[in-house]
């Protein structure tokens, strides 16, 4: 992995609680709160100054812009929700550009695992734990489950396998 172990270690404690809340919120309400997206952006804006060299820090904002534009296009096409697009854009600066291929594979695996686990949970006793969750009855999949998980796993793996 091209992400530095140091930056992954510095980012993860701040990002993990946000990712957990995003997955929970998306399963419960089928929406990712804007406050969590803004908070994730603020974590990068503040912690990134410590975790990354300044020139790298500034260039990472390009990741946000590129992913936001792509997310807006995908949302307009009905492929993904607006909250998913905004969360992906806010998460983009945390990703080292050299890890994009790895991240795509990680996201694909995480998306498949999250989808299967969610659908299995929907038809088992797990549903009784949170019967009011909107994702149990909605035909759409709560993509925040996979997006939040992917960012958290990426940073955790970066601690062990990063440069």
UniProtKB/TrEMBL annotation:
Residues 15-116 form the Prepilin type IV endopeptidase peptidase domain. One of its GO terms (cellular component) is membrane. Gene3D superfamilies: 1.20.120.1220. The chain crosses the membrane at residues 6-24, 36-54, 60-82, 102-121, 141-161. Pfam families: Peptidase_A24. Keywords: Membrane, Transmembrane, Transmembrane helix. GO terms for molecular function: aspartic-type endopeptidase activity. This is Membrane protein. The lineage of its organism: Bacteria, Pseudomonadati, Pseudomonadota, Alphaproteobacteria, Rhodobacterales.
């Amino acid at each position: 992995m091209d992400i530095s172990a140091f930056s992954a270690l510095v980012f993860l404690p701040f990002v993990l609680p946000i990712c957990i809340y995003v997955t929970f919120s998306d399963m419960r309400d089928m929406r990712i709160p804007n406050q969590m997206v803004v908070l994730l952006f603020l974590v990068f804006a503040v912690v990134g100054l410590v975790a990354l060299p300044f020139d790298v820090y500034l260039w990472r904002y390009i990741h946000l812009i590129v992913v936001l534009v792509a997310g807006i296009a995908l949302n307009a096409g009905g492929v993904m929700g607006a909250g998913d697009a905004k969360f992906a854009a806010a998460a983009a600066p945390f990703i080292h550009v050299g890890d994009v291929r790895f991240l795509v594979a990680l996201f694909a695996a995480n998306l498949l695992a999250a989808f299967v686990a969610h659908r299995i949970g929907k038809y088992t006793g797990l549903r009784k734990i949170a019967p009011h969750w909107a994702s149990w009855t909605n035909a759409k999949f709560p993509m925040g489950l996979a997006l939040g998980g992917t960012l958290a796993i990426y940073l955790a793996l970066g601690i062990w396998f990063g440069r």
